[in-house]
Amino acid sequence: MQKNKHYTGMKVVIYIVCIFLAILSIFPFWIMIINATRSTYEIQQHAISFLPSKFLVKNWNILTGKSFNVLRGFTNSMIISVCSTALNVYFSSLTAYALVIYDWKLRNAFFKFIMAIMMIPAQVTMIGFYQMVYKIHMTNNMLMLILPSIAAPAVVFFMRQYLQPTLSPEIVQSARIDGAGEFRTFNTIVLPIMKPAIATQAIFGFVNSWNNLFTPMVLLTDQKKYTMPIMVSLLKGDIYKTEFGSIYLGLTLTVLPLFIVYFALSKYIIAGVALGSVKG
Q1: Model's pTM, two decimal places?
Q2: Contact criterion met (CB below 8 Å) for 164 and 256
Q3: In terms of Cα–Cα distance, which of 272, 270, 269, 273 is closest to 199?
Q4: Which residues are within 8 A (CB) of 195 and not within 5 positions of it... i.e. 6 or more apart?
């Protein structure tokens, strides 16, 4: 009886802690959404409110009146983020597959080289990258924000660590004996096994690409190519007044796709490797 009471008490404590952490995580997003419905005066006088106000339409009119083209920003950000994420996870998974399955002379040296690249901040290489893009006259081309995502050392490392204990070489050998080519083996056998890892990295990759402000700000000068983060960063009021309500509304619109992507892919994170293989 004492053990059961102790176990029940521990469960109650765990539930209370989890609920508290969940509320703590949701709190900043709730305040952001509520502030999107409030006026600048209300935000300045009472920074925190848990109930929505009546200025959502006014904030929307102010937001769209500042050359904030929501549809264009969403379209540009979605094209860049979806294409970057797809290239990121596919080619990183393909590289990890080669590092795990193929036994070649420079395999360990190549992996160490990838690990070394992870230590280099992106800002360090930005000057050289911009000079290259400028010389080939592609500064306002969204391809320059998509193609570099093919090289993702951190994702390759994660995929390799995931594949090593889960992918059996015998499965690949059996597929080869049955006459399957390397790409067919990878696409039909290995990728389904990697679904949980791919979903996890797809979430991180999409969030990083969607929130990326530094690289698009450097490369893009054409307003028609602006992404949502650039548009939000340009939401500045005149010298007399800053409309905080419209800024919070712009931030809310920017965050919404991230919630959609997370809820769409989160079920794959907890999926088992065998279940992912069967579904494929």
Answers
A1: 0.79
A2: no
A3: 269
A4: 268, 271, 276, 279, 280
Q: What is d(CA 1, CA 226) in angstroms, rounded to the nearest whole number?
A: 64
Rounded CA separation 69/250 (Å): 10
What is the pLDDT averaged over residues 173-201?
83
The answer to whether residue 13 sits within a structural domain is no
Inside any domain, residue 8: no
Number of domains the chain is built from:
1
CATH code for the domain of 82: 1.10.3720.10
Residue-wise pLDDT tens digits, 57-82: 888 887 777 667 888 888 999 999 99
Q: Is residue 45 part of a domain?
A: no
Write phi, then psi, for 202 (nearest 5 degrees).
-65, -40
Q: How many CA atoms lie within 13 A of 194 on its CB side?
A: 29
As given in the structure block, the two tokens for residue 98 are 């080669």
Question: What is the length of the chain?
Answer: 280
- Full residue range of the structural domain in which residue 180 is found: 66-279
Query: Does 16 map to a domain?
Result: no
Per-residue pLDDT tens for 86-102? 999 999 999 888 888 88
Apex 225 CA angle, 32 and 242, nearest 5 = 35
